[in-house]
# Entry
Amino acid sequence: MQRRRLAAILCVAVLGTAACSPDTGQSSAPSEPAASSAASAPASSESPAATTVDVLRLAASTQSGGYPTPYAAIRGPGRLMTTFMFDQLAFPDVTGKPRPWLANSWESSADGLAWTFHLNENARFTDGQPLTSEDVVFTFDYNLKGPGAETGVSQNLSYIDSVTAPDPATVVIKLKQERPSFLSDVGGAFGVGIVPKHIWETVTDPGHFQGEQAFIGSGPYILMEFDQTTNSFDFVANNDFYLGRPVVQELRIAPVGDPLLALAQGELDSASSGNAPVPQSQFEDLSSRFKVFTAKGEYNVAMFFNLAAGFPYDDVTFRQAVAYALDRQDMVDRLAGGRGVPGPTGGLGPANPFLAEGLPDYAFDLAKASTMLDSISLKDANGDGTRDLPDGSAFRIDLLTSQSDTEEAGLVQEYLRAAGLSSDIKAVDQPTSDAADTAGDYKIAIVHFGGLSGDPSGMVSRFASDAKGQFSFTRVFGYRNQEFDALAAQQAEETDRAKRTAMVGQMQAIIANDLPQLSLYVPDQLAFADTSRYNGWAYTPQCPPCGIALNKRMLFSGNAEPVPGE
# Structure
């Protein structure tokens, strides 16, 4: 068990920074928001309307999240934990739009190549040291060309040309080319968390840097205890937070066997069904006692084909035949209780505003699948009921999956068997699965991931042949399409929304035809919450692991409303 009790940091949480470090001469009161073309800074939570919540109790993720620093956390749930400690220049509200956070305001040049951010001058780290533009410049340089680059934490920001600090409260970021996704890239739910230069400047291996110093950030919460084995966390409010005192004073995240049952028994304040179907009787009981939250899914389970593995995986007819052989609606019905949809085939999710219409859906058609497999000479050569390779040798598909996706893999195996395709399931733990997916050590892999409603730049990182996706388990192996690459480059710089939408639509059509990756199904989001003490529950678009409970903006303010006046 890897449990950490962070006693030293408790001094900051309970007694305030003055009791733990020299006086910096800066007030902890929130500053007045500066005028800007951007949204104003969030108001202090210490208003008469805000009611303090002593503790919120939530269920821990069943996915391994790694070590909770910006450079060692893995997957969405793990990275999300770091946002409570490490602030970004902006952070999304309930609409999913980045709003002022560490930066009070910002503006861009007419050509969109220079962005000027004005920092909150009261911002400080939890060890009492002030956070200035020097820390912001250090973080970006560290991530893009320093030791942090080796972790891939900011691999999607290679279009940044320079980051400078004209004064302690101002940061200027210059881009090599205009990017419509820039604000989301740096200030979305998984943007750039600013780390303290005075700690990280001597760290040469950030992926393995551990201990109390590794958790010092500027965020509204301080990590008091965590267990890396069970993904449990105990965060307490940073009551010297530069925007004010957080409404939720403690966030307790612990593993439970059945979150919905735990909610019903009063052990949790909110719970989600995850991917599991919710029996109608249980749904009716919970909905009579708690508020119900639903949204289109942003998470999926997908099939990855390794095109570098040779025939038949590199044959588009084979990949399309497999798609027709899979009864994806049956997966929705059996695995999600009918609450969800077969995944769109173009690489984006059902809630994505860029989702194209009219893409092929590869509706279940076993006869068509069989005809297509016959056409590439994958036939039963010896009458044993299973298809063989063209030379008559046996053909078996290796299905790699994590242990959390074995039900999906089992159904895939069932569908393939009906089409005459034999397969063997190799189920491994999540870190091993992610490493194999990243390295391309598979023939076909069953992989779950989120972010389907995010900016199309996420789609580019999965499919563009020149994308810097070597660190990602969501990157398909061996896929090359020059037309897709050209469109990916063009849309990344296109600021006209209609033109960009058209380009992204063409990209989806290419992926839907080539099928290097097939989304099997996208479950709807479904959660229940007790609103008697706290009303900050809401889904955050483009942040599947946020659920309805883990957007720090709502935990800080105590409500789920967009920024006032916006």
About this structure: The CA atoms of residues 55 and 250 lie 4 Å apart.
